[in-house]
Design a protein that fits this description.
The chain has 4 helices and 19 strands. It is mainly beta. A hairpin with a 4-residue loop joins β12 and β13.
């Protein structure tokens, strides 16, 4: 009978160790559950709190609360520009939802993809319907009507990874992650590698010449109000200044970012205690 508590302790220890690894180079983590006035508090410890500008409401999300973008807009939920958001490697992670994934295009991450100088690279992630695409995506036009996009660059000087996807369904949450390790880009869909530029034989690509001084927008794109994530829901937004591994992406998908050890209490994970807190 004594083996069960020991096993539980070992499992908690393993979870804590894995979760603790996700703290390394974590730049931003917005749960949308910890809110002070119009500020969404950053749980990463870097104090990159987001501000609700307009056209965004709090609704029930994948884990706790999420934001819903309510109109086409250039400003919605903005994280002020910071040196911490400038990086040569990156992971962008979020849970996203739409009533009907066959309708509409939009960015859930945008850091000046359309607004900065051509030599000052931004970054972003989006879903596009082919009818809304304004750049050449070649054979992808015939492959599917919906594409996932990981974008680097600004003001017409873009390096985009555009990947066709099967039907994403209706009234469905999806966990989407984009990584860049300084040479290769990978898109993960629901914890699985969906497209890896290294595995398919792409040449290494240097897509960060620099990073611009634009705000990071969650759910909209500066200079392109038509590319807001209109009527979409966004939850569990996170950015790292490194490329997560596949196993780390799966851990992040479960919401286990931190190992939290309250004094005189058994270890638990951040995902187990996450809840909405509103401070007036």
């Amino acid at each position: 009978m004594k083996k069960l508590p020991l096993l539980s302790f070992v499992m908690l220890l393993i979870v804590s160790q894995v979760s603790a690894g996700l703290e390394d180079n974590l730049v931003l983590y917005l749960t949308f559950d910890n809110v002070k006035g119009r500020q969404i508090l950053d749980a990463s410890g870097n104090n990159l709190d987001a501000k609700v500008i307009q056209n965004a409401n709090f609704v029930e999300g994948k884990h706790g609360d999420a934001i819903k973008i309510t109109a086409n807009t250039e400003d919605c939920v903005n994280v002020p520009a910071s040196e911490a958001l400038k990086t040569s490697e990156i992971t962008m992670s979020a849970w996203i939802y739409r009533e009907n994934w066959a309708n509409g295009s939009g960015y859930w991450f945008d850091k000046g993809s359309y607004a900065g100088p051509a030599n000052m690279h931004g970054y972003g992630m989006a879903v596009f319907q082919v009818k809304d695409v304004h750049w050449n995506i070649g054979d992808l036009i015939n492959a599917a009507k919906t594409i996932l996009v990981m974008s680097f660059g600004s003001n017409g000087n873009h390096s985009r990874l555009s990947v066709s996807v099967p039907s994403l369904g209706k009234r469905t949450w999806h966990h989407v992650v984009g990584t860049y390790d300084g040479a290769f880009r990978t898109i993960y869909l629901n914890g699985e590698v969906f497209f890896d530029t290294e595995k398919v034989g792409f040449e290494p690509t240097k897509v960060f010449a620099d990073t611009n001084d634009e705000d990071l927008r969650i759910g909209c794109a500066k200079g392109k109000k038509e590319f807001a994530f209109d009527h979409g829901l966004i939850d569990e937004v996170a950015i790292w200044s490194r490329a997560l591994t596949e196993s780390e992406v799966r851990t992040a998908m479960q919401g286990n970012f931190f190992a939290v050890s309250p004094r005189d209490k058994v270890s638990t994970t951040w995902g187990d205690i996450k809840r909405r807190t509103v401070v007036d």
